[in-house]
Amino acid sequence: MVKTVLLDVDGTLIDSNDAHARAWVDAGDEFGYEIEFGQVRWLVGMGGERVLPQLTGLQEESAKGRKLLDRRGEIFRERYLPRLCAFDGTHELLERMRADGLTLVVATSAGEKDLKALLKQARLDDLIDESTNSDEAESSKPAPDIVVAALEKSGAAAADAVMLGDTPYDVKAARRAGVRIIGVRCGGWNDKELNGAVEIYENPADLLLKYERSLLSRQH
Q1: Which of 86, 112, 131, 182 has a CA positioned 20 to 30 A from the CA of residue 120?
Q2: Rounded to 5, what percent of the chain is helix, strand, coil?
Q3: Alpha helix (H) ranges present in the chain?
Q4: pTM of the complete model beyond 0.90
Q5: Range(s) for CATH 1.10.150 in the chain?
C-alpha cells in the first residue's frame, strides 16, 4: 500500500512550464544569448545547472553563469509567477490524498526560492508535509538525487512511495530511485515520452476522477 506521495510541482501541480521557458528566453536576451522558446520549453523539468550549458555553453560555477541563473529566477518571480495558478483539481487531489493518510513530499528540480514562491502563489503550501528542492541534491533530475532525498526526509521506503510527475526527467529520476511513478500529460509530454510511468492521466483533475482505480487508492 502506498504511504507517501512524492510530488513534482512545475507542470504537474502548477501550470508553470511555459513561464519558466519564457524566463529563460528573457534572461538570455539580457545576457546576449539567443534562446529559442521551443528549445528551452522541453528542457524545463531539469535543474538550471543542466539547462544552462545546453542553452549558452556556460557552466553554473562560472561568474556569468551564476549571474544568468540568478537573473532567470528574478525574472520568473517578478514577471510570470504572479499570473500562475494550480491546475484544476490540484487542491482537491492533495486534500483527498491527505484525507487518506498519505504523506505528501515535494521533490522538485526548482530552487528553494522558486519553490516557496510557487507553492504560496498556488495556495498549496499548507497542503504539503515536507519538501526537497535542487538546493538539497548534488544533481537534479533526471538524476535520482532529489527523489532519494525526498524519501529520506519522509522516512518512507521506495516500495511504499509513488511519485507524481509530468516529464521524462521525472520518470527517469523516479525509476532510478526505485520508485513507481504516475505521469500526467498537463506539462506537455505525451504517453510515449512518459514511458515507464505505471499510470498516466491527463491532469490532476483526471487523476482525482479516477482515483479509486488508481495506484493511490487504498483498494490497492
Answers
A1: 182
A2: 50, 15, 35
A3: 17-31, 37-40, 48-56, 63-75, 90-99, 112-121, 145-154, 168-176, 204-209
A4: yes
A5: 17-82
Do residues 74 and 51 lie in contact, with contact meaning Cβ atoms separated by under 8 Å? no
- Domain 4-15+84-213: CATH architecture, name and number where available: 3-Layer(aba) Sandwich (3.40)
Decide: 33 and 188 in contact? Cβ < 8 Å.
Answer: no
Q: Does domain 17-82 have CATH number 3.30.450?
A: no
The pLDDT of residue 53 is: 97
Rounded CA gap, 23 and 37, in Å? 9
Per-residue pLDDT at 220 exceeds 60: no
Q: What is residue 219's predicted lDDT score, i.e. its pLDDT? A: 59
Q: Does residue 56 have a pLDDT over 70?
A: yes
Residue 35 grid coordinates: 534562446
Give yes or no for residue 203 having a pLDDT over 90: yes
Report the 10 Å Cβ neighbour count for 57: 10
